[in-house]
């Protein structure tokens, strides 16, 4: 798609949504969740002003029937396994984030999990020799904000929705 295409036009061009989306992941797996506004411009400036990123250019709609926290947990786990484990954030920070987010997605987060996620995101940010850890931290932070209703539900147990509904999300 040409840079600057609106999200709604991009989705229509791909055949349209099969159900109303609850969120959109922009920028690839190390990107950001955003509310799925049809007017969202898929450009560097447009996404930056919406707290997103164009990143790898991938756009993924989250169906209403899917659990966004489980999808995020799977992506974070995948990304934690993709680092070269040469810098502290890749060796220690990303696996810890994956474990904590996995607990949240499973609906059994120990007390203090949200605080730890926020703190650990701050600890990995800017600490690697590349931006791989920053991308994971950004994804986690955006999930906690955009999927805040689900986060509140998961503090008391799983939501019952399926996180394996999305093709292309690593298991
Ligand atoms: S932070 Fe980047 S450079 Fe450092 S180990 Fe991870 S992937 Fe490699």
Description:
The relative contact order is 0.17. With 171 residues, the chain is mainly α. It contains seven helices and three strands; from the N terminus they run αββαβααααα. Helix 3 packs antiparallel against helix 4 (88-105), helix 4 runs antiparallel to helix 5 and helix 5 packs antiparallel against helix 6. It is globular. The chain has helices at residues 7-13, 44-49, 68-80, 88-105, 113-124, 132-146, 148-154; strands spanning 21-26, 32-34, 59-63. It has a three-stranded antiparallel beta sheet. It has two domains: 7-63, Ubiquitin-like (UB roll), CATH 3.10.20; 68-154, NADH-ubiquinone oxidoreductase 51kDa subunit, iron-sulphur binding domain (de novo design (two linked rop proteins)), CATH 1.20.1440.230. Bound molecules: iron/sulfur cluster. The site of iron/sulfur cluster (SF4) has 12 residues, from helix 4 and helix 6. Residues 83-87, 89-90, 128-130, 132-133 line the site of iron/sulfur cluster.
Brief summary of the model shown:
The protein has 171 residues and is mainly alpha-helical. It has helices spanning 7-13, 44-49, 68-80, 88-105, 113-124, 132-146, 148-154, and strands at residues 21-26, 32-34, 59-63.
């Amino acid at each position: 798609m040409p840079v600057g295409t609106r999200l709604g036009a991009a989705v229509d061009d791909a055949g349209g949504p099969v159900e109303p989306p609850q969120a959109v992941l922009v920028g690839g797996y190390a990107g950001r969740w955003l509310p799925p506004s049809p007017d969202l411009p898929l450009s560097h400036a447009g996404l930056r002003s919406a707290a997103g990123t164009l990143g790898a250019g991938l756009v993924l709609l989250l169906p209403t029937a899917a659990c966004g926290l489980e999808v995020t947990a799977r992506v974070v786990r995948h990304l934690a396994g993709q680092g070269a484990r040469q810098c502290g954030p890749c060796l220690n920070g990303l696996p810890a984030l994956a474990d904590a987010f996995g607990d949240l997605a499973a609906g059994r987060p120990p007390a203090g999990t949200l605080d730890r996620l926020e703190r650990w995101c701050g600890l990995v940010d800017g600490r690697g020799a590349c931006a791989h850890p920053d991308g994971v931290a950004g994804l986690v932070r955006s999930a906690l904000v955009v999927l805040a209703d689900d986060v509140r539900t998961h503090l008391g147990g799983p939501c019952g929705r399926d996180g394996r509904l999305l093709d292309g999300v690593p298991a």
